[in-house]
Design a protein that fits this description.
By secondary structure, this protein is α/β, with parallel strands linked by helices. It is 37% helix and 18% strand. It has a domain at 74-179 and 211-238 and 278-295: Rossmann fold. The strands form 4 sheets. The chain has a 7-stranded parallel beta sheet with strand order 3-2-1-4-5-6-11, sandwiched between helices. Strands 12-9-14 form a 3-stranded mixed beta sheet. Strand 2, helix 2 (36-45) and strand 3 form a beta-alpha-beta unit. The radius of gyration is 19 Å and the shape is globular. It starts with a strand and ends with a helix.
Length: 309
């Protein structure tokens, strides 16, 4: 049994990983959250109560030994992130330092931290790659910078601790059946329009997004676990990104999505505008990561799951 601790077990990404781990008998899970009742409800409502699972509050974190620690703590919802202010910096650092304190006592453990493509900055008018630079106006740091700076600071700290096994995974876009449909994302707005037979209203900007499939993300996690003695960062990518207007046409054909384009609507950009938000940095291939699903594959598969969830 590989002992896996997942912090932030109520998050969107964590729920998908829990599902994947529990469909494999090689793992025992320690699930940490502020609200353990929400974790138990998720497990029960998805028939995931069998298997090696403990649901715990954060105060119990140092009570057990783990082979792998996965940090899913953070604010992903743009609406909540916009209102979080500086708290995102302190929350990120508090739990990161807690895990690093654990590694001081158990250096052989692997720490997998979910970071973000936002670390590359705010100017996303073309794909980022391995040579991309992140810039910031140091005399005009605004609330839109807090999230990426919190993530970038964690990454810098991790790279400095070369004696520890730490991997940062930069997620750009993620969508699955476990998403909270009350959050404000492109895909939640689209899915709600399909469910309610409403018209999806969007801008005339043809943005590009890259949605990684749950199975591919889990495959990347397993590549990380298999690799020994590593301290590195990897961008997360699907087999192929998708343009918004191409996606809307596909969803109109497959699910009857109705949409119109309006120039005057206002969008929530909690971390800055991102017209082309994906990475061509394939550094993760060095540990064997090769995504099977494209973004459109992911969206079609997971919307079908949402509609039958």
């Amino acid at each position: 049994m590989i002992k896996i601790a997942i912090l932030g077990a109520t998050s969107h990404i964590a729920k998908g990983l829990i599902f994947s781990f529990l469909n494999n008998t090689n793992y025992s899970l320690y699930l940490f959250a502020r609200d353990t009742s929400s974790v138990n409800f998720f497990l029960e409502s998805n028939s995931l109560i069998s298997g090696e699972i403990e649901v715990l509050i954060f105060d119990r974190f140092f009570d057990h030994h783990y082979d792998v620690i996965i940090n899913c703590i953070g604010i992903a919802d743009p609406g909540k992130l916009k209102d979080s202010g500086s708290s995102i910096i302190f929350v990120t650092e508090t739990f990161d330092n807690m895990i690093l304190d654990y590694l001081k006592e158990r250096k052989e453990a692997l720490y997998i931290n979910f970071s973000s493509g936002a670390v590359y900055g705010t100017a996303f008018n073309k794909p980022v790659d391995y040579s991309s630079l992140s810039g910031i106006h140091v005399n005009e740091i605004t609330e839109k910078d807090y999230y990426r700076l919190a993530k970038l600071y964690s990454e810098a700290k991790h790279r400095s601790l070369k004696e520890f096994n730490i991997i940062d995974l930069r997620v750009f876009s993620y969508f699955s059946r476990y998403i909270d449909l009350n959050t404000k994302f492109l895909m939640t707005d689209i899915v709600n329009a399909i469910i309610n037979d409403d018209i999806f209203v969007t801008t005339d900007e043809n943005i590009v997004r890259d949605y990684v499939h749950l199975d591919d993300l889990f495959g990347l996690i397993n590549c990380c676990i298999t690799k020994k003695n590593i301290n590195d960062v990897f961008d997360v990518y699907s087999r192929e990104p998708i343009e918004k207007f191409e996606l809307l046409k596909v969803l109109n054909k497959e699910f009857g999505l109705k949409f119109i384009i309006e120039n005057s609507i206002s969008l929530v950009n909690a971390t800055g505008s991102k017209s082309v938000y994906f990475s061509e940095n394939k550094h993760a291939s060095i540990i064997g990561y090769e995504p099977f699903y494209s973004s459109v594959d992911t969206i079609l598969f997971e919307i079908e799951k949402v509609l039958n969830y």
